[in-house]
Amino acid sequence: MANKQAMSTTQTVNDLEDARSKASFPLDEMSIVYARTQGVRDERRWLVSLLKDDPAFDRRKRHFMSRTERFRSAYDEAMAYMRITRVENEMEKQTRDMLRIYIDSYIPVWLNDSMCIPTVMAQSSTYQLETMGWEANFKAGRWLGCYCQTEMRHGSNLSGLQTTATFDQTTDEFVVHTPDPADAKYWCGGLGKTATHAIVQTKLIIHGKDHGLHPFLIQIRDLKTHKVLPNLEIHDIGPKLGSESMDNGYMRFYHFRTPRMTLLMKNVEVSREGVYTYLNPAAKVLARGTMSLVRVFLVDLAIHNMSRALTLAIRYSNLRRQGSTRNGASLEPRIAEYKSIQLRTLPYLSQVFPLLFASFYLRDLYNHQQEQLKADPFSKDTGDRLAELHAWSSGLKAYATQTSLEACNHCKESTGGIGYHKFAGFSFISSHPSAGVIIEGENWVLYGETCKYLVRSLKQSKSKATAYLQKTSTAASASWALKTAHGIRDERLQNALLEMRAKHLVEMALKRSQKPGPQQGSIDHEDAYNASRAHMQLFLLANFSERMSGPELKSLSAPTREVLFLLRDLFFATCVLTNLGELYPFMSSEQVEWVRELRDDLLPRVGQEAVRLVDAFDFDDWYLDSAIGNSKGNVYEQMYDMMRFDEPLNVEGVGMQDGVVKGWHETLQKVVEGKLGSFSDRKSKL
Ligand SMILES: Cc1cc2nc3c(=O)[nH]c(=O)nc-3n(C[C@H](O)[C@H](O)[C@H](O)COP(=O)(O)OP(=O)(O)OC[C@H]3O[C@@H](n4cnc5c(N)ncnc54)[C@H](O)[C@@H]3O)c2cc1C
Fold this sequence. Notes:
Blueprint: H1 10-21, H2 27-35, H3 38-52, H4 67-88, H5 93-103, H6 110-123, H7 126-131, H8 134-139, E1 145-148, E2 164-168, E3 173-177, E4 185-188, E5 197-206, E6 209-219, E7 232-236, E8 249-253, E9 256-259, E10 268-270, E11 276-278, H9 283-287, H10 289-317, H11 339-375, H12 380-414, H13 432-436, H14 443-459, H15 491-513, H16 525-548, H17 558-577, H18 580-583, H19 589-616, H20 621-624, H21 635-646, E12 656-657, E13 660-661, H22 668-672
Parallel strand pairs: 1-5, 2-5
Antiparallel strand pairs: 2-3, 3-9, 4-8, 5-6, 7-8, 10-11, 12-13
Helix pairs in contact: 1-19, 2-3, 2-19, 3-5, 6-10, 10-11, 10-12, 10-19, 11-12, 11-16, 11-17, 11-19, 12-14, 14-15, 14-16, 15-16, 16-17, 17-19
The structure holds flavin-adenine dinucleotide.
């Protein structure tokens, strides 16, 4: 018999409220800093309000669905998403991106909006967009797209992709072909069962000449019957570690014919006679533009996921009491008081704002670059900014997704057994946080791209962020100028130390790449990883300081600024203490000790601000769907209710019949009653 009254919630609710009340800064102001503007913060609240009461987004039932049921329910979610974004509102891309995050499901039309439409809009000619009706068809939802680049046998190495599109001048068509079943397009989201059209990256072959990878827009399913078109073979790729709602697909072409004009022709053109022309000398770089945009979004998503995990773990750690009572206290200590918990949550909390400010920088850089491309596409400066955007979007995507996944796992583990329970709310980790480190460039490969840019910048820096690489003193001979522990919060000194480390690692990467031998000329993977991460951490720190003195944040209240500086210092100390091997050449053991003292002093101070900081991330309880991380703190009551009333095995008429779980009488009851046959105690024959 359920007895809800027996569940005491007062202690946990009071504990959370108490922890909240210890913070020193105004919540509203910090929540605006987190969102960047009040308008964005309020728009996010509005987006959640659109989803909360819509039955298509009933989140709780997802826990109990099979893959097939989950996928089917994702179609209801996708329908509702299309209705909300296109019929009831006319949402811009960035707003739609945010709405999809709050839907919290990798819906089958995700890639339509995140990759397919942006590629079509950026790389198709006006004739294709307007006269051929591409823009109108996507806008009206008559066409639903996906993005097919990866093949089963090739992912990171784009020049290894095998799908070909060979020009047939007699019919004015391209013949698209997959040479081997293992060369089929693979992993593509929405391809398996949903998309009507696909952006397909293929090698372009004209009159025997290979022009390299080019995107086509290819219709893959009949618009009336939705059946796969002839000469194509398409399947869902099957179960993954997460993302059950997405139909990642496999597609094989059998000499499939597509009109010449389905090649995206904004930057290159193939004439009726098969003459290939560059319409823009930067065509190859421009083709990377969509990737950069998606990486900018992935950085935002990584920060969002990390903030979500921190919200659950920090709230729970402030109300969970565990351990021996001390100093005559009547209650056990809150686990947030333990350093072992603080070390798994607060250093990640300290990275949220530096990462956010870096993502603002990256988005501004992207927008600026887009404007420059329109105004002056051929200038040298435009080319330089494109290279910079590629380097930073690669490095920041890799750093943010890696940090976010680490943070999510540490937060989950810090909660103990309950974190393993789906009602705790961490199951999202198996979706975007886990896939984020792989998609749009596997992180190690991306760190390689960033490092190439850094090594080039040793000779000539074309970005403010790499100016330090030009400083005359070689990093190897430098030592950190901090004289006493008092100066340790000076941002110039903090930057100087991280500059030494990054410069030294970039120099070492160059030096080792010049060593005679089979690898001469290429950068060692370990060097690329270390140098790029060191640079990204320096960039986060330097950019943070710059933002804090810039117009957006200069006028914040003193308590808010002080908390942000506490977080910056904890971030700095974390960078140092987790990379001591790289920093020892520049630091004395006394200086290392000062950094450790700083970190140990900061942990409890940041801990006092932590609950209100995660409140400022402004996650709605409906969205968190977590018994342990909801804003009220009534954790045990929530766990009880979810267990008692949501778990089908506990519900009479669903999983149970007359108080007994269904299936028991037909199976194990027979064992209990000895009806299975007599059990033998004979020894094994082996
Ligand atoms: C959830 C999910 C969704 C996806 N959605 C899509 C989609 O919609 N469309 C699409 O086209 N693709 C999609 N992908 C595919 C994704 O883009 C690829 O998985 C990714 O590019 C990595 O390629 P790969 O899997 O072939 O790994 P590989 O390239 O085979 O890499 C395997 C390992 O080798 C390492 N490695 C490879 N090359 C190098 C190198 N040169 N130097 C150093 N290390 C190297 C990598 O770091 C990695 O650890 C998706 C993948 C996932 C997991």
